[in-house]
Amino acid sequence: MTFMTPSAPSSSTATRPDSDAPAAGRYLEHPATEDIRLEEVLHALADPMRLTVVRELAAASAEVACSEVPLPVSKSTTTHHFRVLREAGVICQVYRGTSKMNGLRRADLDALFPGLLERVLAAAAAQEDRLAGK
Amino acid sequence: MTFMTPSAPSSSTATRPDSDAPAAGRYLEHPATEDIRLEEVLHALADPMRLTVVRELAAASAEVACSEVPLPVSKSTTTHHFRVLREAGVICQVYRGTSKMNGLRRADLDALFPGLLERVLAAAAAQEDRLAGK
DNA sequence: GTCAAACTACGAGAGTCGTCGTAATATGAC
DNA sequence: GTCATATTACGACGACTCTCGTAGTTTGAC
């Protein structure tokens, strides 16, 4: 009953180096789908910076590098926020050359919490419109 | 465009003493509907204790006193969590005698973030079932 | 008035969080 | 090999959070 995201891990510890990932040498720990906890997901989404990241990833068609999401904080803080999102199970991260590509774990989240991510994204968009004077 | 919950505040500062509230002498500050922020709501819901409280309130038919929601923490900590929920705009609180009655601000939240609360409650229920071995 | 019940205010402690800068690492191009 | 780019690890700082106990307030019943 483990849903697999393309290029997303499903085992408990780290991404296994079985397939020929293009120039992949380091692997990142991701929680297994069944280990994702609602409280941690909500906590991860409760930060403005991280919510911005998630919205960017949701709007993007392909994977996005960390440096492609501009945040008004330092590089190390950006790294920190991406890690929180990954450890909460909200995003998956894969090394690709000197970059780290990020993608939403939509399928996993929808399997566990149907409609939740969609409603949060819609709520964020609605609030942005409302605060911008509509 | 301000949605009114029965016995819920709508102005910015505190509940107004206009109607004949039964034995009401103290009033509590609630955020106006338009001042509720998604990030604060998510943060309020991200705590296990507070999520428990919200689920209890959602399941209850009428208003619930603070002492009717048993939490494995002290009284003062319980008070703290109820205040966080109130200040985030998730619940409304009214003094009634020696008790403080609590109710979800469902209408306000649904007006701002349609379907969000429902999805969070469903997600919490789903996770509980899943972790209990289904 | 006295008394108990429900809740709060206050202060405190341990822990976590968001932020930063600097030093270090991995990769790809040269 | 050198070099630039992208990201991380580490330690630090202030701020916030969760928890508690004790003392206090408000209310309703007596």
Question: Key features?
Answer:
3 strands; three-stranded antiparallel β-sheet; Arc Repressor Mutant, subunit A; DNA-binding; globular; mainly alpha; 134 residues; homodimer
Q: How is this structure best described in words?
A:
- Two copies of one chain form a homodimer.
- Chain A has a three-stranded antiparallel β-sheet with strand order 1-3-2.
- Chain A contains five helices and three strands.
- Chain A has one domain (33-128): Arc Repressor Mutant, subunit A (Orthogonal Bundle).
- In chain A, a hairpin with a 2-residue loop joins strand 2 and strand 3 (99-104).
- Chain A has 134 residues and is mainly α.
- Residues 1-24 of chain A have low confidence and may be disordered.
- Chain A starts with 37 loop residues before the first helix and ends with a helix.
- Chain A is globular.
- The structure holds a DNA duplex (30 and 30 nucleotides).
